[in-house]
Amino acid sequence: MNHRISVVFLILLFCIPLASQTGTKKKRPLPYDYGRVVISNYSESSGQPPVVFQHWIHRSMFTCRVCHVDIGFGMKANSTNIRAVDVQRGFYCGACHNGHTEVNGKKVFAACTAKPSFDEQKRCERCHSMGRKVQSDFDFFTFSAPLPKERFGNGIDWEKSEEMGLIKPAKVLEGFTIPKNQLVVQKDFDLNPKVEGMPDIIFSHKKHTVWNGCELCHPDIFMGVKKGNSHYTMVDISEGKSCGACHVNVAFPLTDCQRCHSKPVGEN
User: Fold this and answer.
1) Global model pTM greater than 0.90
2) Cα dihedral angle (162, 37, 209, 258), rounded to 10 degrees?
């Protein structure tokens, strides 16, 4: 018990200076809002509210790699410059939201239409929902009820959910994914945080490749492919660099320290 208290105390000592260095203090989002992305490149200039994208329902259906590698979404909001005409032609959101793609036995609603009828204009609100009360096909609490729980983020342990087969995120999307052989996955390894008494980080390529493959992280996020080639700090991560590309806004957040710093102190 004393060992656990010491570890938590050290983590708090480490995290408090981090908050002061970044100079930011963000309100903790509600579970159903965690990972929410507001896309507003062109919406308001065309007379529409911004698009509100919910990661939680999409990540239960597709791996991150499908959207961020095969389809080509940028890793930051508004970095992709999505236009309605792109969606109409079947790119970006239009890769699935075309009215005929089926996911889990259900047709995905079509998104943008070149010349929408009056009834079709109401469909615009399905995506352009900022500031509107829009009824979704999916209720977060009904969806998350049977899934294993976590303390932070969405309150869902996505890793265990996938391992248990409760969600089955697709790894391929017809017309976008190129079939390829699975590469040999490196073994888990530990990373020393250089802070005395702080538990080492256990990094698992196996767990990350389930969602990301290799291409999502290498070379754009991590230039090196060997342990020790990439150097970063907690401040870098909190600013969205390296691990922070995912573990700030979408994957479990930095407040869940023990998910990464998981090797018991003194264990070889």
Assistant:
1) no
2) -70
